[in-house]
Structure formats: C-alpha cells, structure tokens
Amino acid sequence: MLRTPTGGAGHGTAAAVERAMSIGTVLLQLRDEFPEVTISKIRFLEAEGLVEPERTPSGYRKFCSADVERLAQVLRMQRDHYLPLKVIREHLDALERGEQAGLPSAGGPGEPGDAPWDQDAARATASRIGRPELLAAAEISEEQLVEWEAYGLVVPAAGGSYDAEAVTVARLVADLGRFGLEPRHLRAVKAAAEREAGLVEQVVAPLRRHRNPQTRAHAEATARELADLSVRLHAALVQTALKAGFH
Questions:
Q1: Sign of torsion over alpha carbons 184, 188, 190, 194
Q2: What angle do CA 215, 220, 223 make, to 5 degrees?
Q3: Can you name the residues that pair with 129 across neighbouring β-strands?
Q4: What's the pTM value of the predicted model, to 2 decimals?
Q5: 37 in helix, strand or coil?
Q6: In terms of residue numbers, what domain contains 141?
Q7: How many domains does the chain have?
Q8: Count of Cβ atoms closer than 10 Å to residue 239 Cβ
C-alpha cells in the first residue's frame, strides 16, 4: 500500500499543502510493493517520459503523490502484464486525457464470468511470454540476452517462451551490470542457487510423489516457503560477510 504524504498541520485550510518528495523518499514508498526498484530505475522511467516531476531552480527533482502513483502503475503493468514502456505510456496518457482505454494486454486473467478452467488457461498463457516481450519487459538488448543465455543465467522454457522468473533474473542481471558485474562474475551465484534448489528438492520430493493430491499441493507450498527462507538466509550471510570485511 502506498503511503500518501500530507502537508504539515496548522495551516488553517481545508486542504493540506502537499510536501514535495525527493527521489529517495519516492524509492522508500515504492519499495513496499516493489522491493527490487532502484533510484536508477526511477530515473530511467523519467527519461522515458513515464513520469515528469517538477524541478527546483537548482535542478533537484520534486515528486508529488500523483507521480508516485503513476510510477506504481507503470511498475505494476511491467510486472503483471509485461507491457513495453511505450505501450504503458500511451495507455496512461490516454487515461489522463479522460479516455476510457482498456488495458492493452496480449493475454491476461480471464474476464468475469469465464469458466474456471478458462481462467486457469488464461493465467497459464499470461505467465509465458515470447522473446520480444522479455526484451521489452527487462529493457535489455538482444545481444545482452544472447550472452546471458550462453552463461545459463536466463533459460527459455520449451518452445522458446519465458516465465516471470526469467524477467526478474534479466532485470537483476542488468542492474548488477551497471556496477560492472559481468555474466562471468555471476556464475558462482547461479551455482549457489542451484545447490540451494537441490536442498529444497530433497525435502519436498517425497511429498511430490505422494498419491494424495492435498499432500502434493502441500509440497508446492513447502517448496515456496523453503525457497523464501533460503533467500533470506543467503542475504543475511552476505550482509554478515560484508560487515566482517569492513572490520
């Protein structure tokens, strides 16, 4: 849930004056819903015309709550519908002009009234995207994707499609690349992830082979929980190692 800033108390007016926000404040608000967003991402979206904050005479950005909500809309459409930024910008601009523009999506969740199996099929279709959609969603070039695939960082599914995790991986690899980390540097990270996945699989494999459907469903929930705990442990160990290196 986004927190809308309010003006200071005691102005004696019915409508409080909204305080302008710095880009750092905007980042903190967005991270409640989008933990992977970065300041460089916000600046990139501004450069692409997705948001236009005011500027002080000295050039500092001044964001308002409407800017934060617009950024949240952009990030949701990227995350949930894998839409290119150009399409997102046109859609939001149309809404601001008061036009009744439906969400431009190649395939999303079923419409109200669809049969349950139709909705499941629609969600399954929406969870897979093609190569052009991956490039647009992750904002990367064909050359980058080819290199990352060669290192096994991004792996297409059968038929050449990609899932949501591939988009997330591509975005993270791109963000790390801005700090000079190349795909060859990330092979150790990939190997560690595969070892962690292997540990999770050892725990849930007996449950997945069970004849009871509820037990098999419990296996998937257990796998997700173990994966989350593994990621949190990994992050804590990295922070511990970094702190030790600074002493």
A1: positive
A2: 120
A3: 162
A4: 0.49
A5: coil
A6: 125-181
A7: 3
A8: 10
